[in-house]
Each structure stands twice: as structure tokens, then as C-alpha cells.
Amino acid sequence: MTEELTRIRDQIEALDRRLIELIAERVRLARCVGAAKRASGLPTLDPAREAAVVRRAGAVARGSGWMTRACATSSGT
After folding, report:
1. Contact predicate 3/75, CB 8 Å
2. Which residues contact 44 (CB under 8 A, 6 or more apart)?
3. How many folded domains does the chain comprise?
4. 3-state secondary structure of 4
């Protein structure tokens, strides 16, 4: 395995750890929302809110340009 490949894979592994931490924090906050809703007597599920969250995430993803970003390598490919 080349040094470049090892470096890239190490970066991916570090990013995976960060993603897991972010997902865990989001789950924790979602549980807090559920607890606050229950304490307020509100319904836990809100399909309209869930749909809005998904739409917003999709718009953010599309706007980020991640699909069109090229891989920059030392070999120029």
C-alpha cells in the first residue's frame, strides 16, 4: 500500500470517528426533544417536522457541492 493511500485511509477513519460522535450527539438531542415534548404533553412524532428536517438536509447536501468535488492527489488524478 502506498503512503498516499495509507494517509487517505487514515483521514477517512478519523472522519468516521467524528461522524459517529456527531450522530451520537444528534441522537442525544433528539431524545431530549422527546422528553421535552412528553413533559409538555405534546405528541412525540411530528411528521411535518420530520419531513422539513429531511428536506433541509437534502438542500444542504445539494448546496454543498459534494457530488462534484474532485479528488486531489499528489499524482494529479
Report:
1. no
2. 34, 37, 38
3. 1
4. helix
DSSP code per residue over 10-72? HHHHHHHHHHHHHHHHHHHHHHHHHHHHHHHT--S--HHHHHHHHHHHHHHHHHHTGGGPPP-
Q: What's the CA dihedral at 33, 37, 40, 46 to 10 degrees?
A: 140
Q: What is the pLDDT of residues 19-67, one digit of tens each?
A: 999 999 999 999 999 999 999 999 999 999 999 999 999 999 999 988 8
The cell for 47 is: 411528521
Domain residues for the domain of 26 are 3-59
pTM summary value? 0.74
pLDDT one-digit tens code per residue, 11-21: 999 999 999 99
Q: Is residue 71 part of a domain?
A: no
